[in-house]
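Section: protein folds

Sequence with per-residue tokens
===
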Amino acid sequence: MMVHLNLFMPEIDKDLRNKLVTEITDTLGKVMNLTGEARESLSIFLDTYKKSDLAVNGHFLNGGKGRKAVHVIEVHGTIMPHELKKRMAADLTNTYCKVLGLDKDARHVVRVTFMEHSAHNIALGGVMLDEMHLARK
């Protein structure tokens, strides 16, 4: 199973970015039972923005329930069972909040969304996903 993550988040320093990528890769590896080479199929793209950009991107960063999500984790992968998605969303949120130091009251600003694709489209690789990202800009 190939997975690509887009993280839309406020700007953070380089060391924290590296720690976040490492922790999220480890979390996904555990949730999906990936080892060695299989972990190499994970790709994580961090797209940061300045707080002033929030007004521009507000339509995308809608957290539902009348709140704005300030951090969005977009999971692109093949079709997954509902239980796996629930566990993945919970574990990704926990890891993300732990690394960034967000407490339980602030978790509502994090949203995990799933974009499921056929295995063939994912196998076509980063090209399709990169084009989707560029089209969004």
About this structure: Strands lie at 3-10, 42-49, 62-64, 67-68, 71-77, 110-116. DSSP finds six helices and six strands in the chain. The chain has a mean pLDDT of 72. The helical segments are 14-31, 36-40, 54-57, 82-100, 119-123, 126-136.
